[in-house]
Amino acid sequence: MKIYIYDPDLNNTYYMTQNIFLVLADAGTTSVSCFLDSVCTDVSCGRAGGSNNWKSTGTDGNCLVADCSQLTLGKQVADRACASCYTNQTPATIYANNAGTYCVTSNCLQLTFNRKMTTSDCQICVGEGSQVNPDNSTCTASTLTTQSSKLNYYNHLLLAIFVLIIFKV
Question: Which of 29, 64, 73, 78 is the most buried (most CB within 10 A)?
Fold first, then answer.
């Protein structure tokens, strides 16, 4: 870039060359903090649709999803990927659903752990037609036979830990 400067004392115009570096985030993306060992990867940031669909912002040690169009239904997505692509959306869909297949407005895992899940949350986190179970931490799909895999996983994990504790005692 050339910058022209007029010097009235010398009655002369001259220019100086200036290198200006400007790093702009992709339109609609927000940087997230998951930069690890000088790179942005699925290991440090979570899945973002395609494999290692992350790039560094280059300036603040944060990461961006390289291609938000890869966060499509059926591909694995993490909360950070949703936050990178959809923070500026109204309402912001900055969390992954329970199956990790698309971005939603509710923090499904927090609702599960705090036992604050409602039927409307189940419909957001699990899918249309699902209902909350009496424990307010799991959801039952409309078929009444299939529970959310992530929610069910935590119940089984707690049961396994309980069984191990009993056998140790």
Answer: 64
